[in-house]
Structure formats: C-alpha cells, structure tokens
Amino acid sequence: xxxxxxxxxxxxxxxxxxxxxxxxxxxxxxxxxxxxxxxxxxxxxxxxxxxxxxxxxxxxxxxxxxxxx
Length: 69
Prior knowledge:
two-stranded parallel sheet
C-alpha cells in the first residue's frame, strides 16, 4: 500500500498569499483526495512562524464543505 502525505505548501498559510489563492489550492487538493483516497492532507513541510492560525482552521472548514464522499 502506498500512502501520500502533503499537499499545501507552508507559504500558503502566510500573508504572502491571498485567502482566495489559499482556498483555491486547498479545494483542489481536497478534490484530489476524494479521487485518490490514499492521500493524507497536510502541510507539505510545516506552517511557517508567520503562518495564520485562521487559515489552518480554514482547512478543516473546507474539508467539511468539499471533502465529503
């Protein structure tokens, strides 16, 4: 069994990327997860020190909205 983990690059959790850009990437990643169920969503490296907690929480909200099978 192969399991892939990752998805969202840490910089997407910082103020350097718009919230719209963040949401677009997260939703696309969630769509891939639904098609490839061996994919575990996570930050590709780590959330940087200047990462926004609100965006970390947003991932859960987007999974609830778009991640249902």
